[in-house]
Automatic annotation (TrEMBL):
Pfam families given in the database record: Rep_fac-A_C
Full protein name: Replication factor A C-terminal domain-containing protein
Gene3D superfamilies in UniProt: Nucleic acid-binding proteins
InterPro entries: NA-bd_OB-fold, Rep_factor-A_C
Organism listed in the record: Cannabis sativa (Hemp)
């Protein structure tokens, strides 16, 4: 563990189920692997990113969802590795799927999510929260909860 920095964003631990209700989302966006910012490019297209990186457009997993627990729910957005854990596959796989295959995969994921508990660390992105349309917490880390941990917390 590193020491807290003054600028460090406060993170919160929560536990609950991941719920995905928006099925029209793409579950990835095309990004620069150097800075993770979105890029209006085709898969594998080479471009010079504003971050200075000689970039190759790469799909990055992204899920808009909710975390539900006994007390309520929060809207979250998760990216990259965290989103891929929930999707059970890499973003590169999602992009290779046909529309039909993708829908089927997502349907399976959503079914499995109904029985899974997760332990997450979330935080508010202050800059983005200032814009009113953005009401999601960002997921910093996510891990599937073991059954005994779920049992302990609910007693
Ligand atoms: Zn970049």
């Amino acid at each position: 563990m590193t020491a807290l920095q003054p600028t460090e964003i406060a993170k919160f631990w929560i536990q609950g189920k991941v719920v995905i209700t928006n099925l029209s989302q793409s579950f990835y966006y095309m990004s620069c692997p150097g800075c993770n910012k979105g890029a209006q490019k085709n898969y594998n297209e080479r471009f010079l990113c504003l971050c200075g990186y000689e970039s190759t457009a790469t799909p990055r997993a992204r899920i808009y969802g909710q975390i539900n627990d006994d007390t309520g729910s929060v809207s979250v957005i998760m990216f990259g590795h965290e989103a891929e854990q929930v999707l059970g596959c890499y973003a590169t796989k999602i992009i290779e799927y046909s529309e039909e295959e993708k829908n089927k995969h997502i349907e399976n994921v959503i079914n499995e999510l109904t029985t899974k508990y997760w332990i997450l660390q979330i935080y508010a992105d202050q800059e983005k929260m200032k814009t009113q349309r953005y009401k999601n917490f960002n997921v910093y880390s996510i891990e599937e909860a073991k059954q005994e941990e779920v049992a302990n917390s609910s007693s």
